[in-house]
Amino acid sequence: MLLVLFSLYLFSGLSTINNWKNTQRYYHSEEFVTDFREFPQHYGIGYDEEKDQEIYPTDIEEYRKYNLTVFTRWWEEGPATFYQVGQHYYDSYDSSYIQLVFIFLFVLGFSLFFIDQKSNFNHFLFSLSWTKKELFEGKMTTVVLPIITTVVLGTLSNILIRYYGIPRMYINARFSQFLYSGFSHLIIGILILMAGILLGILLGNLIYGPIVLIIVMVSLLLFSEVYQEYLYYIDALFDYPIHYDWQALVVVTPGIDGTPWFILVFYFVLTILFYFLSRTIFQQISLENNGCMLTVPTLRFPVFLTLSALSILWFVPLFANLSFYFQYEAVIPFLQIVITTLLCLVTSYLIVYIDDWPRAIGRFWYRSFKKVH
To answer: What residues form the membrane-spanning segments (predicted)?
Structure first.
């Protein structure tokens, strides 16, 4: 398991370097040199809007340098000329499998405690002389800590491979920027791992637990769309808003994207919160509640409130598309907002109180049967 996790970082770095070297070999091939000399008009390196004409390199080396330099900005032609935390920088040679790491960490965190419940391993653990607090901290030390260590080593190996695998003249970034990007990636990765652990401890139903996990994962994939909606609201409220690219807020692949420090502090606080919530809930788990939607049924109401609030904040801006109405000064769709809000409330209730469904349906049919007869 740890080997697979480390391999994602290692082979992603090696694959990126291989892509760059293949491109470099082509730019130094006889085929490219001949084509460049015969058809120089096909090899522009930008466009001068003032003069309304294409910009061409002075020689073939300038063209190579222009295209082999690693990092670019989406609104800036050619290599990036400056660095700013919170901005996204493209690596056109990136061939990364690291996008799978966050999914892997989330599912792995969920499985660490959820499988123990469903395999009845908790029956054995709870029969030991150790307290539940000691059991929880023991698993965090012996299982979770090695996972985090693997992510640290994998991130560092990926950074070293990408930084030293390409000649320095083509790396338009400092090593410290790579390290900060790796640190940003590590913090969000640990947060995702702890979120998975919290869900794995909180959810107890063999069928509905994994379904909720999938729903959460799919919802998180909509982060960029939700963030763009809220970004528009920020623009409307402040005269000089600071724009952060969502790729820099959630650094999926270590490169030079850096998350602002206060966002990292927020992620760290959330991680600590998830840790203490996980530990507290684990200590309240009872074998009598095995199979229930929530392992601690007394938490149903606070979980319902939390889920309702998060789903409303997440889905109302997305489905109501309020930014469109603000932008074009149209009538705000209050009906759509109300319907989406009600759907979020009803869905949250059905998920949290799903254990009551069979009894409620049974009582309904029983009363209906008595009325008929």
So the answer is: 97-115, 143-166, 178-199, 206-223, 261-282, 303-326, 332-354
Which of 35-44, 70-79, 152-161, 259-268 shows the lowest mean pLDDT across its residues?
70-79
Stretch 273-296: mean pLDDT? 88
User: Residue 117: which of 127, 109, 125 has the closest Cα?
Assistant: 125
DSSP code for 4? H
Name residue 18's amino acid: N
Query: What one-character-per-residue DSSP string does 75-128 give?
Result: TEEEE-----TT---EETT----THHHHHHHHHHHHHHHHHHHHTTHHHHHHTS
Predicted confidence at residue 74, as pLDDT, reads 64
State the alpha helices, DSSP H only, in the chain. Answer: 2-27, 30-38, 60-68, 99-118, 121-126, 132-139, 145-164, 175-202, 208-220, 223-237, 246-249, 261-284, 300-320, 322-327, 334-352, 357-372
Give the phi and the psi of residue 90 in degrees, each rounded to 5. -85, 140
Residues 6+ apart with CB under 8 A from 310: none
What φ, ψ does residue 53 adopt, rounded to 5°? Answer: -155, 160
203 beta partners: 294
**CA-CA distances (angstroms) from residue 2 to 5, 11, 85, 137, 144?**
5, 14, 31, 20, 11
- Domain map (residue ranges) of the chain: 2-47+54-74, 97-291, 296-373
Among the listed residues 184, 340, 320, 331, the one whose alpha carbon sits nearest the alpha carbon of residue 255: 184
pLDDT surpassing 90 at residue 278: yes
314, 362, 338, 316: which is closest to 218 by C-alpha? 314
Using the predicted structure, report yes or no on whether residue 233 has a pLDDT greater than 60.
Answer: yes
**pLDDT value of residue 206:** 84
**pLDDT of 366 above 50:** no
